[in-house]
Design brief:
Mean pLDDT: 81
Number of strands: 7
Largest sheet: 5 strands, mixed
Number of domains: 3
Number of helices: 12
Helix content: 55-70%
Low-confidence stretches: none
Shape: elongated
């Protein structure tokens, strides 16, 4: 918020002044150094009134915020509430939290606080404070699961098509191998081994490309948004930039899941190769 100050200075912990938005300052014809009267109510102290100087004027991310909010220090709020111990909420920032993917860490910290704080104090995690975001994530997770299922299905089709064509092209060679005494299980193992090599190479290549794309995009500062979405994000004080992140767990999970799907998909062409009759296979003509 300090970088949004357009006049005056930002508040300190013991500052007696307040910050107002440009819109409110214009509406009330206020300037830095002027006094304004604040009226407030507290459940335990009834009504309160104080005179506070304008320490600074800030450019709020949205005009409604600039017209309706006054920012003061905790000491100023306690004077207004006529209570030296008044506080309705304490916001805690947890180190190491980069986004929703760190929800487990936030829940651990919340549980630890619940265990040590006295009765009467409520600890709320970010989903309880932002129920709208909770609903959004409840919709987003199934959508991402459906998209993942589609992509894994397409990967399985690629493996089936590649190996099926490979078996068709080598029908005579497979027939010859069977005629020379190779067991059907061995032939199936050969096809599955080929599938394993293709899958491993694809998983490594995909992981390298995926991590590389994330690193390159973040090296350039993320993906800038445009249009109405960018304008809206600027209004609410959020930089209009889409950032990408990836963890080792995500890479290993994706590669492992794709490997399992690919090996299952390879079972059909492998089974077909093992069921070939040697004499018919050697007479096969494409």
């Amino acid at each position: 918020m300090a970088d949004r100050i357009v006049a005056g200075e930002f508040l300190t912990s013991d500052s007696a002044g307040v910050l107002v938005g440009e819109e409110l300052a214009e509406l009330l014809d206020l300037d830095v150094g002027d006094d304004m009267v604040l009226l407030g109510a507290h459940p335990a102290a009834s009504l309160g009134a104080i005179r506070a100087p304008i320490a600074g004027i800030l450019r709020a991310p949205e005009a409604t915020i600039g017209r309706t909010f006054v920012y003061g220090s905790l000491a100023t709020a306690r004077r207004l509430a006529r209570s030296e111990a008044a506080a309705t909420a304490i916001v805690i920032r947890i180190d190491g939290v980069a986004g929703p993917q760190d929800a487990d860490l936030m829940e651990q910290k919340a549980e630890a606080l619940r265990a040590v704080l006295p009765a009467g104090l409520v600890v709320q995690d970010w989903l309880e404070l932002l129920p709208v975001m909770d609903g959004y994530l409840r919709i987003l997770v199934p959508m991402l699961s459906i998209m993942a299922a589609v992509f894994f299905g397409l990967g399985a089709l690629v493996v089936v098509n590649t190996l099926y064509l490979s078996v068709m092209e080598r029908t005579r060679e497979i027939g010859l191998i069977l005629a020379l005494g190779a067991s059907r299980l061995r032939v199936m193992g050969m096809v599955l081994a080929e599938a394993g090599i293709i899958t491993a190479a694809g998983a490594v290549y995909g992981a390298v490309v995926g991590v590389g794309v994330v690193l390159v995009v973040e090296a350039f500062g993320g993906i800038p948004l445009w249009g109405q979405m960018a304008a809206y994000m600027r209004e609410i004080g959020i930089p209009p930039v889409l950032h990408m992140s990836i963890t080792a767990k995500q890479v290993l999970l994706s590669a492992g899941a794709m490997a399992v799907v690919a090996m299952l998909a390879a079972w059909m062409p492998a089974r077909r190769a093992s069921k070939l009759e040697p004499m018919e296979a050697m007479r096969y003509v494409e």
